[in-house]
């Protein structure tokens, strides 16, 4: 029996059970949950970086977005609050759409 020891989406146990397999799970406490969300976010980021097609990349970005929703909730915010902060930062500092790559800045 493979051992996973990782955070999974809420319906994964149901899907496993519907396939006729047995499994074991436990509910994480808040501290463990935050840690596992961070670990899972890194895992999904690596999968995004390794994606070889636009379709794979979009799938991984969707996973990251789901984890961003979870992380925002951990820190007491909802996605609307997160989006408001993102917009404010974009207005103040810009986004990334112009693809600017900073090479160096001369010190005084």
Automatic annotation (TrEMBL):
It comes from Bacillus lumedeiriae. CDD domains: NTP-PPase_COG4997 (cd11532). InterPro entries: MSMEG_1276-like_NTP-PPase_dom (IPR038735), PRib-ATP_PPHydrolase-like (IPR021130). Pfam families: PRA-PH. This is Nucleoside triphosphate pyrophosphohydrolase.
């Amino acid at each position: 029996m493979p051992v996973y020891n990782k955070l999974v989406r809420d319906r994964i146990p149901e899907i496993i059970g519907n396939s006729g397999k047995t499994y074991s799970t436990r509910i994480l406490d808040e501290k463990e949950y935050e840690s596992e969300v961070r670990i899972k976010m890194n895992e999904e980021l690596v999968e995004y970086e390794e994606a070889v097609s636009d379709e794979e990349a979009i799938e991984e970005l969707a996973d990251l977005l789901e984890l961003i929703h979870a992380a925002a909730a951990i820190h007491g915010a909802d996605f609307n609050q997160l989006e408001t902060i993102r917009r404010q930062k974009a207005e103040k500092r810009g986004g990334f759409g112009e693809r600017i790559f900073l090479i160096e800045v001369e010190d005084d």
